[in-house]
Amino acid sequence: MKKITLILAFFFVTGIASAQRTNLNNAFNNLRKNNIEKAKNFIDLASEHDDTKDGASTWFYKGCIYLSVAVNEDKEISSLDPDALNKAYEYFNKAITIDKEVYNDMLSINTPQKGIQIIGIEWANRGTKAYNTGDFYNAYLCFDKSNTLSANDLTKINAATSGYNYEQNRIARRDTVSPNLSKDVKKHLVQLTNKSTLNESVYNFLANMYMTDNDTLKAIALVNKAETVFPDSVSTLLLKASVLYWADKGSDAKPVLDKVKSKAPNDPKVFQNIGYILEKVSFEESEAAYKKSIELDPTNYNTKFNLGALYFNKFNSIKKVYSNLRTNQQAEYDSLKVVSEQYIDLALPILESCYKETPKAYDVVYMLKQVYANLKQIDKAKEMDAVLKSLKK
Questions:
Q1: How far apart are CA 289 and CA 267, in angstroms?
Q2: What single-letter DSSP state applies at residue 108?
Q3: According to DSSP H, which parts of 216-329 are helical?
Q4: How crowded is residue 46: how many other Cβ atoms within 10 Å of its Cβ?
Q5: In the predicted structure, residue 362 carries a pLDDT above the cut 70
Q6: Residue range 185-210: average pLDDT?
Q7: Residue 34: is its pLDDT beyond 50?
Q8: Between the CA of residue 187 and those of 106, 183, 208, what are the distances in Å?
Q9: What secondary structure, in 3-state letters, does 64-88 show?
């Protein structure tokens, strides 16, 4: 009786092991036939059993199956596990840890290493989709993961660009609650500036972040380096001039702008940028640059708006001065008031023209409302206020 019992036990254990190998084979066969849900059920069983859970092929197949779940266009399949892409990466790595040589030529993804490369591409695709919808935070996360899996300049630039746009929006909102990505974004940008082939936007982004941090030394060092990398670039020269003016080094910045003007004497966008750079430095020079840009391209909406805003801001700055004068300074008050009104009169027709071109542009409507209010044109100010409220909806 004892011998019979032992024999029966032996066959029972063998039967279980065989069943688990069958689960593994069934997972593989259903994967090849694109029966992903069945393949997932079988591989989940095989990966949990003692007889098959330590096999490299088990985790390799599981990685392939979960990757198929993650990228599947059928929502019923992709919803089987919302975290399938991360899990696929985990499973491929586990297969490599057990046996880095594991492969199967009968599968289109014939090695775990190739599976990881495809996961990197999928994260990049998801990053592109998020970026195109304006979801810069999730775009950054996706591109960053893609860069981790298959590092290259393109994924790093995409990660940096997404993160930079997210940070700019977060800072503009004065948002101190949302995650701060500035440290990680700067890390990407610094690494990119050490590359020999890249685009100029990398330097532009990093310089702006250094200025946000009030890091004068790094900002200046960066634009000097940028000029050596792109010696004939007008964009890089404009960036350098902007940083130098920001750093109160106007005497160094002026010859840089002179060089820009000589390189692009008929480029309206160049003079628009010069006008913007000079706004906080010299009202007269900024005004002249904007006027030159409009002369070269009368249809340039952005330059017209900038010039209108320049005049309105000049009005406001003078108004602030005379509003703080004492009652015994009436003559000075009257004189400054007359001067300020000249600038708001210049701003009005420009901003009204911009409003006709883009009646749904929030900045134009907001500024026009203030212009009308200061000119005591109450009905028009109320009209702009109503437009603002409709734009916020």
A1: 11
A2: S
A3: 216-229, 234-246, 250-263, 268-278, 283-296, 301-323
A4: 27
A5: yes
A6: 90
A7: yes
A8: 41, 6, 14
A9: HHHHHHHHCCCHHHHCCCCCHHHHH
Read off the pTM.
Answer: 0.80
> Alpha-carbon distance 186 to 188, whole Å?
5
Q: Residue 101 carries which DSSP code?
A: T
Burial (CB count <10 Å: 0-12, 13-18, 19+), residue 384: buried
The answer to whether 88 and 36 are in contact (CB under 8 A) is no
pLDDT tens digits along 142-192: 999 999 987 788 899 999 999 999 999 999 888 999 999 999 999 999 999
Contact 26, 33 (CB under 8 A): no
54 Cβ neighbours under 8 A, 6+ residues apart: 98
Contacts (Cβ under 8 Å, ≥6 apart) of 114: none
Q: How far apart are CA 28 and CA 335, in angstroms?
A: 88
Question: In the chain, how long is the greatest CA-to-CA distance?
Answer: 123
Mark residue 223 as left, alpha or beta (left: phi above 0; alpha: psi -120 to 50; beta: remaining): alpha
Give the Cα-Cα-Cα angle 88, 93, 98 (nearest 5 degrees): 130
**Confidence category of residue 393, pLDDT binned at 50, 70, 90:** low
Q: Which two tokens stand for residue 8?
A: 């029966």
The answer for residues whose C-beta is within 8 angstroms of residue 204's C-beta and 6 or more apart is 235, 239
Q: What is the number of H-type helices and E-type strands within the chain? A: 19, 0
Helices 362-374, 301-323: inter-axial angle, 10-degree rounding: 40
Lowest mean pLDDT among 1-15, 85-99, 121-135, 290-304: 1-15
Closest among 93, 92, 96, 149 to 126, alpha carbons compared: 149
